[in-house]
Amino acid sequence: MGSFKSGLLVLSRNIRSKKRKQKKKKKEFTAEQLSRYNGTNGSSPIYVAIKGRVFDVTTGKSFYGPGGDYAMFAGKDASRALGKMSKNEEDVSPSLEGLTEKEMNTLNDWETKFVAKYPVVGRVVS
Ligand code: HEM
């Protein structure tokens, strides 16, 4: 009886740890890998990263897909551009260097919006 109970305990622990792993499973992308998800690859998803966190923005294809107003952010970590409210190519970068407090707040607001709207699929690694 004791061994039956402890067997069940082991089983349920295993299931729980598997579930935890599944939930946690986040892909790691280099900037180069991320850049492939820029919406020009037909049916593949579109990703945008904020502070290294990669969001699947495919449902926002009208914004980020080819010809969209924000297509320059697709396949990129656009943190700097979002903080500065800029669509300039040179601002489409993960660099937070020299952003003002106001710009950091703007970026954090975008992050909050994205967390609410889009699934996270992974992180950008260097
Ligand atoms: C005159 C200037 C602008 C106007 C009138 C404008 C207007 C809008 C509107 C109406 C939306 C759709 C909002 C929604 O349906 O949820 C939108 C989305 C967006 N705007 Fe702008 N925008 C302007 C400039 C900018 C600039 C300079 C940036 C640069 C960071 C920017 C970044 C974005 C982004 C990233 C989205 C998509 C958000 C999402 O994925 O839901 N916008 N904009």
UniProtKB/TrEMBL annotation:
Cytochrome b5 heme-binding domain: residues covered: 29-125
Gene3D superfamilies: Cytochrome b5-like heme/steroid binding domain (3.10.120.10)
Alphabetized UniProt keyword annotations: Lipid-binding, Steroid-binding
Biased composition (Polar residues): 32-42
Bias (Basic residues) ranges: 15-27
A Pfam entry, by short name: Cyt-b5
Keyword Protease in record: no
Family affiliation: Belongs to the cytochrome b5 family. MAPR subfamily.
Protein name: Probable steroid-binding protein 3
Source organism: Camelina sativa
